[in-house]
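To: structure subgroup
Subject: Chain for Friday's discussion

All,

I'm putting the inputs and outputs inline so they're searchable in the archive.
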Amino acid sequence: MKSCSRKLIVLVMGASLLAVVSCTSASAKVGGSGWKNLFDGTTLNGWEVRGGFARYHVENREIVGTTVVGSPNTFLCTKREYGDFVLEFEVKCDPRLNSGVQIRSHVYKKDTTLEVWRRDKKVKAVHKAGHVYGYQVEISSERTGSSGGVWDEARKSMWLYDVKSDPAARGAFKDNQWNKFRIACIGDSIKTWVNGVPCTDLRDPVDQVGFIGLQVHSVRSEKPLEVRWRNIRIKDLGRHVWKPLFDGKSLRGWHTLPGGKWQVRDGIIDGSSAISENRHGLLVSDKSYSDFTVRLKFKALKGNSGLYFRADEVGSGVGVHGFQAEIDASKDVGGLYETGGRAWVVQPTAEDVARWFKPQEWNEMTVSAHGGRIVVHVNSLKTAELKNDKGRLKGHLALQLHGGQDMHVMFKDIEMLLPQKK
């Protein structure tokens, strides 16, 4: 009899433990297929406040953010970082209050001074240690019509994608009611939807990983204002990482044609050509690529150069036909040119080039080419974009030395953005 009682007690305890485990699992996952709750509905476990001293608490299975006069922008941030993901939540915001959700974001570890553009002038902005910066998906009001756009918080401090010119996106957010947001980040692609309406479709290469943060904006009002979030869930899709296309020691994986001189020294590809050389000098990737995001650093000391992509080798002196993201010692940097095709597709003005190009210094260029969407960045600023282009869809990468010019250009850190293998 005692033995049976013990067995019964063990069975009851085991069933109870199983029930606890099942409930815990259910609170962590939602709807299967990899969805997980970021908010358990009762506590702020897994979150931390950064940036300011606005207040956050839980009420009715909602996270409530409340303004405090005098506080800078405040963020309730996940303690964990995320790379590629789909994030969904519902939000209700006082129409008098601006808010947002940070994605792939960070904090300044020390006081940091950045140069930013304000009304066509470059000015210095100081950010205190502990301030949050990075991509912010905007939460605003019907009046502003900016919800679902992407703002670069406390860094460039500018719209990376402004939805106000899109009537459908502008009218998607509704005041004084719950609004459902969906955010998809995969590689350099960031897309947003508000109440099922597509809003942002951005290609930006700067950040591939970071935390998620719920913003309570700074206010002057003495009266507390509230923003509320609920049903916050995420599907973690891993992350993308930058992989080298140049090993820093040799030209393995690349071949040359037909003019100019290429050599590797101290992790740098050094290209030069005399003005008497009429042929273009090209360093061409052995592999061909269709959809990709690639970046490199360049220093243009003399003459005209470029990063070719989706290019095909031809027998003439130009060496290849294809798209070229323009590199030059003084002009047109970041533009798009199609050799053997349309010539200039996007040609920037001298004023535009002055915003993003640093003459005689190292500059970073990124080219994102996915289907008919092509986006070029120089030093993290967008310099050219094509949407639904009907042109070239596949080809080689190549670095150019322009013929008939005194040429000297250097390249390093050539990388491609690829999914991280588990």
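Points worth raising on Friday:
The radius of gyration is 26 Å.
The helical segments are 2-28, 167-170, 350-356.

D.
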